[in-house]
Amino acid sequence: MRVLVVDDDRGIAETVRRMLVAEGWVVDLALNGQDGLEKASTGPE
After folding, report:
1. Given CA atoms 14, 15, 21, 26 in this order, what sign does their dihedral have?
2. Does residue 44 contact residue 20 with C-beta atoms inside 8 Å?
3. By CB count within 10 A, which of 2, 10, 24, 36 is most buried?
4. Cα dist from 45 to 9, 13, 40, whole Å
């Protein structure tokens, strides 16, 4: 499964990413709303 994590706090975003990866998720990060919208509309890298 793949998930997009959007948070403007890098520390929180990285913590969430690590937790999700440990559970088997593929995680994409966005550190602001604009980047999150772009990643969500274009799909996985």
Report:
1. negative
2. no
3. 36
4. 22, 18, 10
